[in-house]
Amino acid sequence: MKIVFTHNLKRSSEEEEAEFDSPETVAAITKALKDLGHDVEPLETNGPASSTIARLEALNPDMVFNTSEGRIGRFREAFYPGIFEQLDIPFTGSDAYTCTVTLDKNLTKLIIKNLGIPTPNSLLVSSLDNLKHFNLNFPVIIKPNFEGSSKGITKNSVIKNTDELKEKIHILLSLYPDGVLVEEFIFGRDIAVPFLEGTHSKNKGILSPIEYFFSEESPSFMTSSDQVNAKPSSSSSSSNSSNSSYSIYDYDLKNHIPNQVNTKVPAAIEESVSKQLVKMSSTIYKALNIRDFGRIDFRITPDNKIYFIEVNALPSLGPECGIYAAAAEIGLIEMKDVLNAILQNASHRFKIQTKKRSGINNNNNNNSNNNSGRGSEKRLKIGLAYNEKRIIPDENPNTDTEAEFDAPKTLDAVRNAIRSYGHE
Q1: Strands 261-264, 210-214: pairing kind
Q2: Whole-angstrom distance between the N-terminal and C-terminal Cα of the chain?
Q3: Is the predicted pLDDT of residue 5 greater than 50, yes or no?
Q4: Calpha distance 10→23 (Å, rounded)
Q5: For the whole model, what pTM was predicted?
Q6: Residues in Cβ contact with 303 at an 8 Å cutoff, skipping those fewer than 6 apart
């Protein structure tokens, strides 16, 4: 197939890019798709959406393999699936509606609770006035309602009294004004259940549960016995107290010190608990209409009670992700095997054949369905030669050495213009 791989390229360690794909991940996914015999065009979507749309129309792919999301807003995960839908281009992953719903933690919890699946008691807070309705048991954990990748979650996110709650909520709302979820903290084990729709597993796409363990060097480490015996503080002013005794998969662990996180696949849980997880996960994936792949996070208490925490309809596919270890349990050993399963399922859903292309030079065949527009012209591989301006001239004559060079924004404009005609 002719595949456009849409992605956000991570260029910094800033929090706003926490959910973007690293250059290593982009390279690994691109290689895996090419190894499957497909004609692959990586398309970074961090620039203007108009440029992305123009290039999609020009390239006219058989399928979009998508890991992209928008940069801002409560519906940002739905942004590109919505574009693909309107352009009538087949794509991998869940649709815009599902991505919107699942990014809203509070709304998702209400849906899951209505299915009879236990979730921690919680309260959505958009202002301090909402705390008038607070009737939760301490300790609680606070988290941004519309963020993933543990954004906004630190070792100090577990709160033990009302005064501390007001203080921390005020700070978090200033950073995430769309809303903060306050949730009763569940002592227990972190378990994730990945989903690979259409795979021939005995559980119809539900993969083996994954358990996360935190290193003793991590500030978020807590032993099982500690969790059982821990008691919330009764102090009315403990905002400066350490919360390091609470086991939290926080932002630092997920993004800055992942080497302190270990996984076990399958998770060491009782068979009856595993069956419950599979049944709950199947119900959740079906109810939320999650397609192709996904991940659900649970907590299991020491007495084996299961609580739904959140679901991700657009989880990372980086080489280090647990979905690959879980997929290996059903014989999908390499990254390309997992990506092929995603492609096959999406192709079946859109009723297209997953034919492999012999190369990109067969332009008449590639564009046979595109009778108008720029994409119907011959697609070329173009080399762009330039001098990039890195020195900004000022009154010092020594700074004018690059005066005739091209500014980065000029180069980006030229690149985007060439790409919008379908050229590489």
Answers
A1: antiparallel
A2: 17
A3: yes
A4: 7
A5: 0.80
A6: none
Sign of the C-alpha dihedral, residues 402, 405, 406, 408? negative
3-state secondary structure of 99: helix
Q: In Å, what is the CA distance from 220 to each residue of 117, 215, 251, 254?
A: 27, 8, 10, 11
pLDDT at position 225 over 50? no
Strands 158-159 and 293-300: unpaired
Q: Find the radius of gyration of the CA atoms of the chain.
A: 24
Q: Hey, how many other C-beta atoms are within 10 angstroms of the C-beta on 423?
A: 17
Tens digit of pLDDT for each residue in 148-207?
Answer: 889 999 989 999 999 999 999 999 999 999 999 999 999 999 999 999 999 976 788 999
Q: Spell out a b/e string for 98-131, using b for 16 or more CB atoms within 10 Å of the CB, else e.
A: bbbbbbbbbebbebbeeeebbbbebbbbeeeebe
Q: Helix or strand or coil: residue 190?
A: strand
Q: Which tokens sit at 158?
A: 């577990």
Alpha-carbon distance 123 to 105, whole Å? 11
Distance CA(323)–CA(316), nearest Å, equals 9
Determine the Cα–Cα distance for residues 142 and 134; give it in Å rounded to an integer: 13
Closest CA to 142 of 191, 187, 185: 185
